[in-house]
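Subject line: Sequence and fold of a protein, written as structure tokens
Body of memo: The sequence and its backbone structure tokens, given next.
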Amino acid sequence: MSAPGSGVDDDIDSLLEYLKSNRGFDFSGYKRMSLERRIRKRMDAVGIDDYGSYQDYLEVHPAEYTDLFNTILINVTSFFRDGPAWEFLASDAVPKMLAAIPDHQPIRVWCAGCASGEESYTTAMVLAETLGDEAFRDRVKIYATDVDEEALAQARLATYSSDAMKNVPEELRAKYFQQNGTGYTFRADLRRSVIFGRNDLVQDAPISRIDLLVSRNTLMYFAPEAQADILRRFNFSLNDTGFLFVGRSEMLITHGELFTPYNLHWRVFVRVPQPGMRDRYAFVTNAGGGIENEDGHPGRQLRDAAVDLAPLAQVVVDRTGVVTSINQKARALFGLTPTDIGRALQDLEISYRPVDLRSALDQAYETQRPVRLGRIAWRGAGADELTLEVDVTPVETAGAALLGASITFADVTAQAELHRLHSQSKRQLESASEELQSAVEELETTNEELQSTNEELETTNEELQSTNEELETMNEELQSTNDELEHVNEEQRNRSAELDRLNLFLEGILGSLGIGVVVVDRQQEIQLWNPSATEWWGLRSEEAIGENLLGLEMGLPMDAMREPLSQALARDPQKSEITLEAVNRRGRTFECHVRTLPLITADGETYGALVLMSEAGQA
């Protein structure tokens, strides 16, 4: 590997930036060593030595993008990969997860890095076996995502070869798949619950409210910084009662602040709650992720997120100023009704009472920052006077495109009294803090010593984890290469069988003609000697092939064959048929009729000559 700042590093960084800007693939978070190795494989395949020339090649040959992405995104997967781990998930984690979800509540699953879909359908079979077909169809939604569109297209077909089905138990294969001419297809009624879409784990927003998150051998392709960012998104996605199921090389030991092991041996983890994380990600969930949503309406998706996550009175408007959501507290506070959803904000009284919201919205959109309007007084119908704190927050996608804005009204009436009580408590706490400070300083000394030891252990663990991930990556690369070699070998075997069949067919024809057939090349060396020629002259084919025809010692006068053979090789039909007195291998004299013809290939070149020998008067 080149040193940092070298020209080679600059060239590959330029190539990666080119792929990001032209094709939307951001590989900057992938492990650099593995990434360079995969790109170099494609460069070797097309005969290019440097990254700059390969970038030029991509510009001229757009089809190369597909081969490059297929090489980088190693889609090595299978049904029930690491079978014992799936058995633990089905017998322990899934029943515990289902027991924590009310019977009427949907079950949401995210298969991140699904490749060609085998593990997504494996998850579907595990849930269907536990819930039953009817409950599965009514309650389960499996969101399967990947960045490889070609792999997603294959996954949507839900059709797999017999070889790909080898790990599926026979009873499950019969229950969940239908056999057809091209292989096995997953049942259509259950397939509707599996929704495939493109999602970049580094760039796109995560999917929220997930009960089971399956991401097996996906994290190991990313650098530590990208892994940490993805795991923060996974933490946001997963419900408190949900489970994260990862690959055998992904232990997550150094991310204990996000996930804690439920069963470390089988790589099943539970979420560590992160205060405030769901609020920060609330409005970007599913935005721009490419996954199909449940009801297909973007405004509804935005409204649902706001209603689910906003603890205050809240009104949500889209970028055009149309109200898309009003939660219960806002309706009660301002006398609004559900029929006001879908109306323009400027047509409602709330747009200027109790405070002008229109100018605040314009400011929020222009600066793309929250706008705080401060505290205002408000008296609703038949209610005491309230003090409200109003905030206007722009809602953006991961790509910084404005979706709209969230307007919240916080009731801070009681804060004055709470502030007085807080000040009194603060003074008491300050006195207690001074007494505790001395004890804390002593504890800090001990903690620093423990921290130093802990950091040494974490460093060792990270090195072991990195080595393990690299070995797993290389193992899957070797598996991918083996699959390619098996395909080539199978094609070679098919061609050899076809060639053997044609040779048998040709030998049968030549043996059935009843006349001697000899084929010579332009140097008059024998290339073919059929069984009838052996019967007449007593020479086996292995004795004749490779010898000069005119140099053979047999009962046919070869001096008389020179001129017809030369004429045939010159493609001159004169004197192509002659009759000679010959003696066969048994010593019988007979008249041999010899016909010499030029042997011409399909492209018009003269390969050699064909010599046909029969007894005069023979049919």
In short: The chain has four domains: 7-72, 83-281, 299-416, 513-615.
